Amino acid sequence: MTTTRKSSAIWNGNLLEGNGTVSLQSSGLGTFNISWPARAQDPNGQTSPEELLGAAHAACFSMALSNGLAKAGTPPTQLRTSAEVDFVPGTGITEIRLTVNGDVPNLDATGFQAAAELAKINCPVSQALKSVPIKLVIA
Questions:
Q1: Does the pTM of the predicted model rise above 0.90?
Q2: Tell me, what's the pLDDT at 65?
Q3: How far is CA 66 from the centre of its chain?
Q4: Taking the domains of the chain in order of start, what are their residue ranges?
Q5: Residue 16 burial (10 A CB sphere; 0-12, 13-18, 19+)
Q6: Closest C-alpha among 122, 64, 129, 68 to residue 97
Q7: pLDDT by residue (tens digit) across 65-108?
Q8: Which secondary-structure segment (H or E) carries 36?
Q9: Which CATH superfamily is domain 49-138 in?
């Protein structure tokens, strides 16, 4: 079964001086301000496509890792994942770093590393971002 989620953006003005909003329409969770300075300099209370992409990637990876661990008979108690997305103006997104640690009873560090590597490869957001180097750090 296919599910579709909808988000939208409104942009006003030129790239460097303009601003806009991005709305999470399917969930209704809100509308967030975006701007070029938030993307290329300091956020100043606004978000960017890279921050939103990082949130999506961290969530997707955590879900994929949780599923893989459970299928292997070692369901996690908790996983903590962060994503850092590097953006270079004029070049684009140059790297993503996923950092994860978790509480997984009856699983050693080697098993956790292997499960995390599989999740990194197989999560749908990682699949969509294959053109960007994705590094995995076990914290």
A1: yes
A2: 98
A3: 15
A4: 7-40, 49-138
A5: exposed
A6: 129
A7: 999 999 999 999 999 999 999 999 999 999 999 999 999 999 99
A8: helix 36-40
A9: K homology (KH) domain (3.30.300.20)
